Amino acid sequence: MPLKKLLDAALNLIFPINCLGCGSEGTYVCDRCLKELPWLRPPCCSHCAATQSATPCRWCRHRPLALDGIAAAFLLEGAIREAVLQLKYHQVRGLAPVLAGLMEQAWQAKGLPADLVLPVPLHPRRLRHRGYNQSALLSRALGRGLGLPYDESALVRTRDTSPQVGLSRDKRVLNVQDSFIGKEAVSGKAVLVVDDVATTCSTLSACADALRKSGATTVWGLVLAREAPPPAQGHDGTRPFRRTRRGQQATRFGDTSG
Ligand SMILES: [Zn+2]
Ligand SMILES: [Zn+2]
């Protein structure tokens, strides 16, 4: 048996790998489950990849994204939902190259421009707490797979805020506004920003805003999975598309994704 196979077999004994779909041993996604993954299919909004929607969708008409657009490989369902949880919260970093390979297929099918890949950054404090940025793992593997330069330091998160979960769309936008700064390295570049999940796309849009201010020519977002956005009216009682006072929201809530 070749050394690599022997090593893989030994590692599998110590840290068993199971299929995210059916639990069978030896691989993260078995051949049978691979065929049943929830690939994102049309119709969807060509700007934000919202499913079952016209182009542009209602939300993109109301508040256009700062991105050229978003490509998503999957819906956040089944084995992909499990993969996101394992990668983000259970330290299963070995998943990143597998998932990046699937994202690569979705990106190549689009045939869009990119000459620099980078992740949605975590704030340094959050990065120290979590130990790694799952989006950085994905984007690094993706850069390798696509043969594109990867620069994790070209976009910086300057504000550390609390999670977006439960907030309405409008409040999510306000949370992440002006939270990022693009570096000189993005000037004149077609940038591809990578994240694990997009819900309202407000974080990706805030990244794109910063990248454009620093001279990026185009900014596309690529996510592993698209989650159905929350209703315009959130748990916080915000009415659809109502204007809110910025200062008030920005200090009350934060973001990790979305
Ligand atoms: Zn399976
Ligand atoms: Zn849209």
Walkthrough of the structure:
This protein has 258 residues and is of the alpha/beta class. The chain has one domain (39-252): Rossmann fold, CATH 3.40.50. Helices cover 37% and strands 14% of the residues. It is built from 10 helices and 6 strands. The chain has helices at residues 3-14, 31-34, 58-62, 78-89, 95-110, 124-130, 134-146, 169-176, 202-213, 246-252; strands at residues 69-75, 116-119, 155-157, 180-182, 190-198, 218-226. It has a 4-stranded parallel beta sheet. Strand 5, helix 9 (202-213) and strand 6 (218-226) form a beta-alpha-beta unit. Helix 5 (95-110) crosses helix 7 and helix 8 (169-176) crosses helix 10 (246-252). It starts with a helix and ends in a 6-residue tail after the last helix. The model is unreliable at 234-256 (pLDDT under 50). Bound molecules: zinc ion (2 copies). One zinc ion binds next to helix 3.
Structural class: alpha/beta
CA-to-CA gap between the ends?
46 Å
Radius of gyration: 18 Å
Instruction: Estimate nothing, just give the exact number of structural domains.
Output: 1
CATH topology: Rossmann fold
Mean pLDDT: 85
Morphology call: globular
Helix content: 25-40%
Name of the CATH architecture: 3-Layer(aba) Sandwich
**Ligand catalogue:** zinc ion
* Main sheet attributes: strand count, strand direction, barrel closure: 4 strands, parallel
Give, in order, the helices and strands. Answer: HHHEHHEHHEHEEHEH
Number of contiguous helices: 10
How many E-type strands? 6
Beta-strand content bin: 5-15%
Please identify the top-level CATH class.
Alpha Beta
Give the spatial strand order of the biggest sheet. 1-6-5-2
List unreliable stretches of 5+ residues.
234-256
